[in-house]
Amino acid sequence: MFVNKFAKCFALACLSLSIFSCSSDNDSPSTEPVEPTVNGAKYVASYWLDDYTQYILDFSSIDQLMTGEISAKGVGIEQAGSCFPIDNTFFALSTDDEGAASFHLNTTGKLVQAGKLAFESSYAVGYTDDKKMINIGATWDGSSSDYELMIYNPVTVSIEGRKFNDFAVSADNKKVLHWPTGVAVSGDKLFVPVYTKDVSDGTNKVLSSDATIRVYKYPSLDYVTTIKDTRTTAIGMYYTNTGIVQTESGDIYTFSSNARAGGYPVTAAASGVLRIKKGDAKFDPGYFFNLEESSLKGKVLAAYPLGGEKVFISYIPTDVDAVNAVYSFLNTKTIFKSAILDLSAKTIVEVTGLPDHGGDEFFGLSSLFVENGKAYKSFVTGNEARVYQIDIATGTAKAGALIKEGLYLPSIGKLTY
Amino acid sequence: MKEALILLHFNFQNQKILMQLRRLLLLITIFLTALQGYSQKNKASLNGVILTAGKPEEGVSVSLKGTSYATLTNDKGEYKLIAAPGNYILMVAYAGYKTKETAIILNESGKKVADITIEEDMATLNEVAVTGKSKVQRVREQAYNITAVDLKKTYNTSADLNQVLNKTTGVRIREYGGLGSAFNFSLNGFSGNQVKFFLDGVPMDSYGSALTLNNIPVNMAERIDVYKGVVPIELGADALGGAVNIVTNKNVNRYIDASYSYGSFNTHRAAVNTRFSGRDGFIANINAFANYSDNDYKVDVSVVDKTTSKFLPEQKYKHFHDAYKSGTIMAEAGFKNKSFADYLLVGFAIAGNKKEIQQGRTMQKVVGQAFTDSESFITSLKYKKDNLFTKGLSLNVNSTYALVNNRSVDTSSRVYDWTGNYVYRQFASAGDKGELGDKTIYVYDEANAQLTSNLKYQLNEQHSIALNYTYLGYKRKETDEYLKVVELGEPSIDKNILGFGYNFSGFDNRLAISAFGKMYDLSTKMISNAITQSASSTNYGYGATSAYHLSDKFQVKGSYEHAYRLPSAIEMLGDGLTVNSNIGLKPESSDNANFGLAFLTQQSKNHFSAETSLIYRQAKDFIREKQDGDKTVFENLQNVQITGIDGVFRYGFKDLLTFEINGTYQKSLNKNKFKTGTTSPDALYDAQLPNVPIFFGNADLTFNFKNIKYKDDRLSLNVSANYIDDFYLTWPVLGSLETKKAIPEQFTQNAMIAYSFLNGKYNLALECRNITDVKVYDYFKVQKPGRSFSVKFRYFLQ
């Protein structure tokens, strides 16, 4: 108790000091944004436990992800929600009554909560170029086709723009709807990849469709058009946000699984990657990366940016997909493999040293962390789950810390103070 | 016919066990009789009859003052004491009567004492310290680990039974809000349905939500017996962690006790309890009570800005949809002291309630339209006959048949905030979403049949044997009547419990021993997705209790039980609104051991007493309520160990002052080494269970002043305090304690002033609860009422 009070006093003292220093800054008005001095950094991860609770852990060194065990015993902040590192904060987007919360490191390097906000619904998210996030709220059973797009500002921890849009495939049939699988923003354009579903009999039936993206203006959130490409099928998967990636060049790449494992009725089209060139609002007709015809002979389920034009992908061999359950990406059955793609050069490096693993569950988008040419992500490999470090250049994976009370680290990020 | 067959089947299965038990008991009996014979050398007997109003009185305490020789009168008012010859003061004490002391000389040839008549003492009805051993004290001295709560001293409070019980050692009642709110009763680490409730020995499971501890006024009962751990077979229950038996007043033949109280949050409580006894043995009891409250107390919450979605700073908001009303009428009539029956009573009760719902699991979800209501119709038959066919054989049968209609209604598309404003829901999922879940008008009609029969045979003064058979039949007819009526099926639960017990009391009543065996049979018929699933199980339990007076001041107690509990209807079937069903729930079992020490002394005007007990429970398939999204669901936890210690200290100075302080500390640990169904280690092995109170205590100080303005008037001043240490919503071992979701420490104080005059005929009391108006939480982010005042007027006529 005493220690606790001491810590509070210390924090208070630091806070007053920082306020002091801020007020002196204000004395000399400057329009130039001042780059904050970095005193230190910490790695932050959300940790999903077997009992469906989630804790946010912080580590002073990346080595802690690579050695020993990851455990929430005595450490971590209990917080529900899908977590996303954004603009030096760690945002837990929860639709629970308790609300979503933003975390950051305070001046002493301690992870603290900054603010809370309420979300009624969240089905697809993505980052913008100006360090904000997009959230799409929707009605799962299709009783309404009006979905809400909103812009979350991590600086003010508030929603600063919102607009409803009718996601019906055609205005005269409100029972066949588009369902968002992710969001990406490039410049003034906002892309929402969707699949098509039929809600007329209440079963939420997934229909086969072409690769489809709804295009909006950013930041006005006004609907512009819907673009389609027949070379492959629907982009992304339900609730994962791993079907659309913006690379360093500003180009957008989309990933279509056409896989049972992704929850789709399989068609004759190939699983593969399409491109939208920077500044365009249409698929690049000259680009298609056919993965079923590649050396992988597989279907891509999820893609994570690795920097440059590279992505890390989780895929399932086409023959394995055919004999496994629909929506296998939600299971721990070890039927998935990984590879590194250079999207621009269309080259493939298969990941070695990583056993066949389970699906990524709903834990996409921020579950892979990149630093110094290495990627870090947790994988379920049978009865246990570990963090693996993957060398981006060679594709060599190295097993790291054992995850003790659960199977997933749904999000990993790095914050500074 | 089916029941008869089942019974026959039980008898057959049980014969083997009974044979073995009989052999064991015979051995014990022979051994103890020999000991008893030895210790009775050179002693003389003393006997006589105790009368009240010219009639023999049963259950009167007769003792030789300053010694441990004590006994109770039988149904003919007779008593017999065996003691060393000498000069004694014979002390006769009976609750509600003046204690009488008579000097006697006991010589070797024994003595027959002339009939003693004791006189009623109305003043003592409000007294706490009863000279000699009160009924409450005698209950406390039974071999069971038991706490008897004397309600007489609380008759003037506006409290309900829950609030009174919450002051008891080992007991913690967690409430979701104000009057009529859902609550969870926990006793030494066991909670909910693990603890069984009885009204005069009749299980209250089937009475419906209008007849629970938070509805029943204190005036209806004389005392509450709280059995911790081991429960006597007479109650015939499959309790795992103990039982609570509410004992109504039976001493006064004709009376009327009427009371009305009004308090903060527009709370009204009224109660009338009356008894009529005719000369020909006719007896009629009527108990009626009604409760109403707006429960519009203020809570500290933050609302969300609709544009930015940001949580705004916390403010005080009033509950606006939390009203509760309930009413009950219970009538009972029959005969007492007839040749064919000591009593034969037929009863009928009707009860109903309506509860508006203000919030979801926490205050963050505001509800403005959903509600639940229920109606109960209960018929009962009670029969008791001592010396049936032969001397010493007594039969006691209680049966009830109850029909309870319940509704859970959640049909609103509105999303309320704490200001009472609302918008219509923008997003929904899985059907049409109401305020708490899918829209529903969930109607479930319950039919409960219950039979408890006890056969007891007093072999002689020291030895008795008892047989109990209990049947509980439950049937639920479920329908969802939202939009169109959907029949959800008719699940049923049948429980048969058979118990056999042996009691010994000897060594001048210094030693009491009970041993028992029980058989639990459960058969269920559940419906899931229109498929009927039937299951049945039979389990055996056993145990023993003993108590020994080391001296007339010290008593030690020990008990052990291997107990089973069969899941309840609500645990398996849910309530359609806040509790999800889990039809695969298994019966839970526990090995319970208790060890207790009691001390009682009286030195001139000072009374001291102290009790402490150690508890140990090893539970298997422990049934626990856990969060399931916005709702809860009951699950089996494979291995749980509960250890605890509690203690109470009481002090009284004459009739002027009484003081009590008690404390309870308990640990509930997960003892599961491996994750269920796997060989991978359970990371939570040895961890304290979440959402369970660990340390709590109470203090109570009362002053009584008599003859202030008028003869026989009385002024009582009472202050009490309640403390509970903080505990965590989820596994405390996980996460940093600093940021964990905690149910914060509570420290509240209450005060009451009561004035009675005309010998207790008129009573007026003023009460303040939560004097310092602190924020109080029993559940995570569910704030309870702040400071409240109430005034109660009570009229008592005999």
In oligomeric terms, what are we looking at?
A: heterodimer
Total individual domains of chain B: 2
Helix content, binned percent of chain A: under 10%
List unreliable stretches of 5+ residues of chain B. Answer: 1-21, 23-41, 122-132
Helix content of chain B: under 10%
GO molecular function (chain B): siderophore uptake transmembrane transporter activity
Protein name (chain B): Outer membrane cobalamin receptor
GO biological process, one term (chain B): siderophore transmembrane transport
Main location (chain B): membrane
Give a brief description:
The complex is a heterodimer of chains A (417) and B (798). By secondary structure, chain A is mostly beta strands.
Draw up the topology in text.
The complex is a heterodimer of chains A (about 425) and B (about 800).
Chain A: H1 2-27, E1 41-49, E2 54-59, H2 63-66, E3 69-70, E4 77-78, E5 82-86, E6 89-93, E7 100-105, E8 111-117, E9 124-127, E10 133-137, E11 146-153, E12 158-166, E13 168-170, E14 173-180, E15 184-186, E16 189-198, E17 205-217, E18 223-233, E19 244-246, E20 252-256, E21 272-276, E22 288-290, E23 298-307, E24 310-317, H3 318-322, E25 337-342, E26 347-350, E27 369-371, E28 374-380, E29 385-391, E30 397-403, E31 406-416
Parallel strand pairs in A: 3-30
Antiparallel strand pairs in A: 1-2, 1-31, 2-4, 5-6, 6-7, 7-8, 9-10, 10-11, 11-12, 13-14, 14-16, 15-16, 16-17, 17-18, 19-20, 20-21, 21-22, 23-24, 24-25, 25-26, 27-28, 28-29, 29-30
Chain B: H1 2-39, E1 44-52, E2 55-56, E3 61-64, E4 70-72, E5 78-83, E6 86-93, E7 100-106, E8 111-112, E9 116-118, H2 135-140, E10 146-150, H3 161-165, E11 171-175, E12 183-187, E13 190-191, E14 195-199, E15 202-203, E16 221-228, E17 242-248, E18 255-263, E19 267-277, E20 282-293, E21 298-301, E22 315-318, E23 324-336, E24 343-356, E25 371-385, E26 393-410, E27 414-416, E28 422-424, E29 440-458, E30 463-480, E31 486-489, E32 492-506, E33 511-528, E34 531-549, E35 554-565, H4 569-573, E36 588-603, E37 606-628, E38 631-653, E39 657-670, E40 695-706, E41 714-724, E42 727-728, E43 742-743, E44 746-757, E45 762-769, E46 777-779, E47 782-783, E48 788-797
Parallel strand pairs in B: 1-8, 1-9, 14-17
Antiparallel strand pairs in B: 1-2, 1-5, 3-4, 3-6, 6-7, 10-16, 11-12, 12-13, 14-15, 16-17, 18-19, 18-48, 19-20, 20-23, 21-22, 23-24, 24-25, 25-26, 26-29, 27-28, 29-30, 30-31, 30-32, 32-33, 33-34, 34-35, 35-36, 36-37, 37-38, 38-39, 39-40, 40-41, 41-44, 42-43, 44-45, 45-48, 46-47
